[in-house]
Amino acid sequence: MAVTDTAEIAPHADTHAPRIGGKDLLDQVLDSLSDDKAENVITIELAGKSSMADYMVVASGRSTRQVAAIATNLVDRLKQDYGLLSKTEGKDAGDWALIDTGDVIVHIFRPEVRDFYQIEKMWLPNGTAQA
């Protein structure tokens, strides 16, 4: 099932919470991934490549439990701090999770699953990697 809706502001969110998007949202996503010890984090700029988002972030968690926890914590932090509701897919299984925050699409994989899909190869020019 593909994520087709964009993220939105929670209807009961704190109206004083700052709105966030673009590079600021990317920075918050990267901080959350770092706090939860995500590994091999790669940021891919999508400007000019796709209209679905400004950035894509691909990261790994060491286990199904860590993948699910990283995804849950990211969604919870964005909701708590910014009132941002993110769409999620796959986190319950724990092999892979997709979080659509609107401006940033986040993929979190177990290492074996990430190696299988090699999603970075679809978006990065040959031989490049961004950390």
Word description of this protein:
It is a single chain. The chain is an alpha+beta fold and 131 residues long. The protein has helices spanning 22-35, 64-82, 111-117, 119-123, and strands at 8-9, 39-45, 55-60, 84-85, 87-89, 96-100, 104-109. Helix 1 (22-35) packs across helix 2 (64-82).
Topology:
Blueprint: E1 8-9, H1 22-35, E2 39-45, E3 55-60, H2 64-82, E4 84-85, E5 87-89, E6 96-100, E7 104-109, H3 111-117, H4 119-123
Parallel strand pairs: 3-7
Antiparallel strand pairs: 1-4, 2-3, 5-6, 6-7
Quick synopsis:
The chain has helices at 22-35, 64-82, 111-117, 119-123, and strands at residues 8-9, 39-45, 55-60, 84-85, 87-89, 96-100, 104-109. It has four helices and seven strands, in the order βαββαββββαα.
Largest sheet geometry: 5 strands, mixed
Could you tell me the strand content as a percent range?
15-25%
Order of helices and strands: EHEEHEEEEHH
Oligomer: single chain
How would you write the strand order of the largest sheet? Answer: 2-3-7-6-5
Features:
single chain, 131 residues, alpha+beta, two-stranded antiparallel sheet, 34% helix, disordered N terminus
